[in-house]
Design brief:
Elements lengths: L2 H35 L2 H22 L2 H7 L5 H33 L4 H16 L2 H9 L3 H24 L14 H13 L9 H35 L2 H34 L5 H28 L1 H8 L7 H12 L2 H13 L3 H22 L4 H27 L3 H26 L5 H22 L3 H18 L2
């Protein structure tokens, strides 16, 4: 990676990581308070409706945001066309969901879902007016400004949610405060850009973007449906409380990896797109990203698996105890999530949305077979099925990466093997030591520092390149900002 590209990547990574870490830290604390005030059934009701909005958002974006970032020479008409497309499609799907809300409530046998769906449909429309402005800031690498806006909005909405939960609003405390978000974002985006996309529209540009984005649309639909298939099945076959327990366990398992992966995706896609035609530089940068991703996320997820029970019992109380085994098992599926995402991101960088679609169809077909087999055996076996699926999909995701830049499955596994060994050995050590401690709080107090010291120590012992690289980047950034 060239010095200039490395600096841009690291600067963007620092600001985006700062934003994401701040958001996740606050959301985590907010979630603790809310989980103590609300019930698993309240979270189950929200999880039941999420799939419908996720599917709608796939159609609304249609891959246009990715196409807009990737296009080299963007003009005002490009932004305006994407803006008009987003708003019109949002209006259509919001109306569709509003009208279908009684059917959704009947499907789950939960009458309150009718009102929840209708209220969220209005919120969808309000959020659509800010989408392109946020994309434009990412295109111009305004990560600092985005960080300030996102952190502020999250804190305001989070505090409002806590207040409403204390006041006894129940499930509505998870919905009403989000109406503050579109107004706050509009104010921040206007302050930092003084720009609006306008209402011009070009069919020629629309067709150009849709030609690239249509494959991503279908891929996104498949991925979204699969990501929500567990809530759909559990919500239909079991109770809202069961779904709440599962959703809480899965959300904690994916918390560290989704945080890190979100940072990588936002920063690396525009940066790697700049060198998309230089395979040698792209290969070198990509392998380094794979190694750094595994080095950072593997120990966090494995540590969470080792300390799942004390973390749940201390943080959100024993009323959430049923989510502990789900959390532990799902961690072994979640740890590969950033690696999956990086492989798929490369296909978008190379403009191969057709290959992206082929992979998604193959993976979802395989995943459907696994989940159908697991359903009759209960929620825990469904979690085990997600681990099996994650491993199988890793083979599929790395196939075209190997074809395009010669960084296939074996190369990636070779790069990841050291940090996988460090993380698994750390997990076993922490779990074994903490099992001898009766106090749940003390298990956390001993387990976390023990895991950190062991992981850094074994990294240093085996002369980990990723540890040295991370330290070097941090030192260079500090020197740049504050001097020697």
């Amino acid at each position: 990676m060239s010095d200039n590209l490395q600096k841009k990547t690291f600067s963007g990574f620092i600001w985006t990581f700062g934003q994401t870490f701040s958001l996740e830290a606050f959301s985590f604390l907010q979630g603790i308070i809310m989980a103590r005030l609300l019930f698993p059934s309240d979270y189950g009701l929200i999880a039941m409706t999420n799939v419908f909005y996720a599917i709608s958002n796939c159609f609304i974006d249609s891959g246009f945001g990715t196409a807009l970032i990737r296009k080299p020479n963007k003009k005002a008409i490009d932004y305006s066309t994407v803006y008009v497309t987003n708003v019109v499609l949002t209006l259509f799907f919001a109306l569709l969901l509003f009208l279908c809300s009684p059917l959704i409530a009947d499907f789950y046998h939960e009458p309150i879902l009718k009102d929840i769906v209708r209220v969220n449909s209005v919120l969808m429309v309000m959020n659509s007016f800010n989408a392109v402005q946020g994309t434009r800031m990412r295109i111009h690498l305004q990560f600092k400004q985005l960080s300030i806006a996102n952190v502020t909005v999250t804190i305001v909405v989070g505090v409002a949610s806590i207040v409403m939960a204390f006041m006894g609003y129940g499930v509505w405390a998870l919905i009403y405060p989000h109406f503050l978000s579109p107004f706050l974002r509009w104010a921040f985006y206007w302050h930092y850009q003084h720009w609006h996309p306008g209402l011009s529209f070009s069919w020629r540009i629309w067709k150009e973007y849709f030609g690239f984005g249509s494959k991503l649309l279908i891929s996104g639909l498949l991925d979204t449906i699969w990501a929500n298939i567990y809530p759909i099945v559990i919500g239909k076959k079991f109770s809202a409380a069961d779904l709440g327990q599962f959703s809480r366990g899965r959300s904690y398992a994916y918390l560290p990896v989704s945080t890190f992966q979100g940072v990588l995706s936002q920063v690396t896609f525009p940066v790697l797109s700049a060198i998309q035609n230089d395979d040698e530089r792209l290969r070198s940068a990509y392998r380094r990203l794979i190694r750094l991703s595994g080095y950072v996320t593997f120990p966090m997820v494995m540590g969470m698996a080792a300390l799942a029970k004390p973390l749940v019992f201390v943080i959100i109380t024993e009323k959430w105890s049923e989510c502990v085994p789900y959390l532990q098992v799902i961690c072994f599926a979640a740890m590969w999530y950033p690696i999956h995402a990086l492989n798929l991101n490369l296909l978008k960088v190379k403009g191969r949305s057709d290959l992206f679609l082929i992979l998604e169809i193959a993976k979802k077909t395989l995943s459907a077979i696994v989940i159908v087999i697991a359903i009759p055996f209960g929620i825990f076996c469904m979690c085990v099925g997600s681990v099996v699926t994650s491993f199988l999909c890793l083979f599929i995701n790395t196939y075209y990466t190997g074809k395009l830049i010669k960084v296939g499955y074996m190369t990636q596994m070779k790069d990841l093997l050291p940090c996988l060994f460090y993380s698994l050995s750390m997990c076993v050590l922490v779990w074994g030591v903490t099992q001898m401690i009766p106090s749940m709080l003390l298990r956390i107090g001993v387990g976390i520092p023990l895991g950190i010291v062991y992981y850094l120590g074994i990294s240093k012992l085996f002369k980990s390149q990723e540890l040295d690289y991370a330290v070097l980047l941090i030192k260079e950034n500090l020197i740049k900002r504050y001097g020697k």
